[in-house]
Specification:
single chain; mainly alpha; Rna Polymerase Sigma Factor, Chain: A; 2 domains; about 75% helix
Length: about 160
């Protein structure tokens, strides 16, 4: 396995995938780099014909969740709040923040794979082909799943409006 070729071909995909999960460019860069280091160490597990992109994204997702869980524990221990002092314009942010909270509340309530497929497409800007590859499914499966997730989100937002 030529890790340099794989790195050049898949780094942006892995980076965008992690960015869709974290929404933090610096963290995404670090995790993408760590993904390829781990892939290099486990290169002997990869066989000819395996889905390299999916394999790398699984490694990246596991690294992200490991980081997220350790960061969450760290914040609970020392009581940090990442969002302190980040509201530049409170008046214009109030309505947007409320909509974002509502959207993420409804998105969080979706079952898998709808939640992750929607996040990968909307926040990570991955193609349907890439999303299908990550799940080991077809591009068409990713398309259908995304549109079903979108429909469920719109229905959930309508339900929230009625409350």
């Amino acid at each position: 396995m030529d890790i340099e070729k794989i790195y050049n071909e898949y780094f942006k995909i892995v980076y965008r995938y992690v960015l869709s999960l974290s929404r933090d460019p610096e963290l995404s860069e670090d995790i993408a780099q760590d993904t390829f280091l781990k892939a290099l160490k486990k290169a002997d597990e990869l066989e000819e014909g395996d889905n390299v992109k999916g394999w790398l994204c699984v490694i990246a997702r596991n690294l992200y969740y490991k980081h997220y869980n350790s960061e969450k524990r760290h914040e609970e221990i020392i009581g940090e709040n990442r969002d302190e002092g980040l509201a530049p314009d409170p008046e214009s942010e109030v309505l947007q923040a409320d909509e974002r909270v509502r959207l993420h509340r409804v998105l969080h309530s979706l079952e898998e794979p709808y939640k992750e497929v929607f996040s990968l497409r909307s926040f990570g800007e991955l193609s349907f082909r890439d999303i299908g590859s990550i799940f080991g499914k077809t591009e068409n499966w990713a398309r259908v799943t995304y549109h079903r997730a979108r429909k469920k989100l719109m229905e959930g937002m309508d339900d929230e409006d009625k409350l």
